[in-house]
Amino acid sequence: MAPSGPGSSARRRCRRVLYWIPVVFITLLLGWSYYAYAIQLCIVSMENTGEQVVCLMAYHLLFGMFVWSYWKTIFTLPMNPSKEFHLSYAEKELLEREPRGEAHQEVLRRAAKDLPIYTRTMSGAIRYCDRCQLIKPDRCHHCSVCDKCILKMDHHCPWVNNCVGFSNYKFFLLFLAYSLLYCLFIAATDLQYFIKFWTNGLPDTQAKFHIMFLFFAAAMFSVSLSSLFGYHCWLVSKNKSTLEAFRSPVFRHGTDKNGFSLGFSKNMRQVFGDEKKYWLLPIFSSLGDGCSFPTCLVNQDPEQPSTPAGLSSTAKNSENHQFPAKPLRESQSHLLTDSQSWTESSTNPGKCKAGMSNPALTMENET
Ligand SMILES: [Zn+2]
Ligand SMILES: [Zn+2]
């Protein structure tokens, strides 16, 4: 548990205020860029009315989308695991009594047997967060800054002072895309005036300095944003989070860096949703509940319900729980099909009915 007391809480408060500095910096920069572009460049320096109108309209469109997606990324609360993943009071007591050992493992195994989880720790144990006292859903990680477990955590971003995860990953991508377009647009339309600055073609007013610095800032941010945006496009195409790109998820059969990849088109739909009209808008449209994800694993985990409700009994009876050499396809997930699946077999998301414990599992706390 975190140390408590007036000193530590004041320090925490102070740290929380400091975390907003990058957001304030971006906001001030954005405000200045508005003044420099819309006022000093378009209204003061442009002589052609047609160019003025076109530039101002396109600029305001990009500015609006940039601010909207940035706002949504900052203020969308990260999603935490649902109550099904939290241990009951009795289970917590048992764990406290048995901090290690087989009894400890048994408690976790029993608590996890009905949960839709496929990933494990490096040692094959169920992923458990000591801090939040819950069994971590797949792709969920504990953020030390937020001090919470975050569903499909990508990373904690200081530029938005928020965790980027299941609830706001789409917004974050759009924020990168629109901020990149914003910078590219400014750099492209400012270029001829930037050249005029160096050839003394601009009147000697303060506007010329805004024009020069605006071009430098736009060009510089374009370079850094394009690399970051390109990297996240690659992550989306592979259905990976930043954390998973650094450390591949571990499944029961072992590490699989493409364990959640369903193919390019379906990977895109996981983040942006099925309806293309929402793809470019910072409106939540990602598929799923953030607690369970379809996989393309080659092995089926016998301790987890993995087949549609109507098929599960047949599959279970016909095999002695050996892993079939076929993938867990999206048909086994409610995320990609309309058919009833194991996650939908219960009214509680995250709970499912079939399952048996796996004695081979070991316990390891993972944060
Ligand atoms: Zn946690
Ligand atoms: Zn965080």
From TrEMBL:
Residues 298-367 are annotated as: Disordered. It is an enzyme of class 2 (transferase). The keyword Protein transport does not apply. GO terms for cellular component: endoplasmic reticulum; endoplasmic reticulum membrane; Golgi apparatus; plasma membrane; postsynaptic recycling endosome; recycling endosome membrane. Keywords: Acyltransferase, Membrane, Transferase, Transmembrane, Transmembrane helix. The gene is ZDHHC2. It is found in: Membrane. It holds the Pfam family DHHC. It is a multi-pass membrane protein. It comes from the Eukaryota. GO terms for biological process: postsynaptic neurotransmitter receptor cycle; protein localization to membrane raft; protein localization to plasma membrane; protein targeting to membrane; regulation of cell-cell adhesion; regulation of protein catabolic process; regulation of protein localization to plasma membrane; synapse assembly. It catalyses: L-cysteinyl-[protein] + hexadecanoyl-CoA = S-hexadecanoyl-L-cysteinyl-[protein] + CoA. Residues 298-321, 333-349 have a biased composition (Polar residues). GO terms for molecular function: protein homodimerization activity; protein-cysteine S-myristoyltransferase activity; protein-cysteine S-palmitoyltransferase activity; protein-cysteine S-stearoyltransferase activity. The DHHC domain is required for palmitoyltransferase activity. The chain crosses the membrane at residues 17-37, 49-71, 171-189, 209-231. Its main location: membrane. Belongs to the DHHC palmitoyltransferase family. It comes from Macaca mulatta (Rhesus macaque). Residues 126-247 form the Palmitoyltransferase DHHC domain. This is Palmitoyltransferase. Its EC number is 2.3.1.225.
